[in-house]
């Protein structure tokens, strides 16, 4: 979709997919992917050389979008480096670098010298790098709960702010393409050989993408004109390692918890960015949940037809889509759903719609029944 919010919005408005035939994996794999352009040519500044890897390069590109570094610096000056928390979500962190190290073992079975950097062979690699890059000294947390990871970071940050442990938080998520993910999902028979088609009657699997995104959370009085995180819901039904609960138990618990915490009735929700991966079971369960919870006036769509499934980064990526809907009154169409599944009710927006959006939800439903839902609203909204 490009770099930054303007590029994202232009892609949504033009209903243009960012998916391409797989040109990433080391062995042939017939599928489509969402690959970030320019990542191979990107480089971390010299002082961050110990963290050099694809995932952290993508994080660095994300941090340098839309003046974000300057906003964090202003918050650091206002609150102090130790009063800003950092909460990042990722499902694989820098495992791509560890894959490379194992491919290049020396005769004694050791990592090659240039890959003997412990900082990148750990799940906390992303958070450690971002903390160093932003100069933050407050609580630092990596959330790795599969596809809900970078949605759950909003909940963790809001709790710490409410408890007075911090005054602001940087939240975000980054996941990059790697063979472990591509071939792992393919082994589960979840990967389509075509561009993914969320909620389409003939859908047959996901497309995998990569993304980075970050947001700055502060108390309302520090940014009265900014959109608001009204609430969140989290649940884990542990129904199955990779298949959602057939009645959407955990997803429903997370959704209703978000509405309750935000003080919202379902009818007040203008738009829902759905998890909508284009897998058979996920879309079936989520469509039923929407149909039995929301009126036809609530609009709903998946945007994975634009990006593919960005795994641990999907929460932050799709939160930004929900916030774009609020700011610009854009309900993005459900790209790829050319033959709508009859299970989808009247709430589904199959093409772009322009209308005021005061309240938007973002669903992130992960493996193991680990689910999260975020509720956002325009500045000044009162439930």
From TrEMBL:
Biochemical pathway: Lipid metabolism; fatty acid biosynthesis
Superkingdom of this protein's organism: Bacteria
Keywords: Acyltransferase, Transferase
Enzyme class: transferase
Record-listed E.C. numbers: 2.3.1.41
A Pfam family that the UniProt record links to this protein: Ketoacyl-synt_C
UniProt GO molecular function: 3-oxoacyl-[acyl-carrier-protein] synthase activity
Span of domain Ketosynthase family 3 (KS3): 1-378
InterPro entries assigned to the protein according to its UniProt record, in alphabetical order: Beta-ketoacyl_synthase, Ketoacyl_synth_AS, Ketoacyl_synth_C, Ketoacyl_synth_N, PKS_Beta-ketoAc_synthase_dom, Thiolase-like
GO BP: fatty acid biosynthetic process
Gene3D superfamilies (alphabetical): 3.40.47.10
Gene Ontology CC terms, in alphabetical order: cytosol
PROSITE patterns in alphabetical order: KS3_1, KS3_2
Sequence similarity: Belongs to the thiolase-like superfamily. Beta-ketoacyl-ACP synthases family.
Name of the protein: 3-oxoacyl-(Acyl carrier protein) synthase I
Organism annotation: Rhodanobacter fulvus Jip2
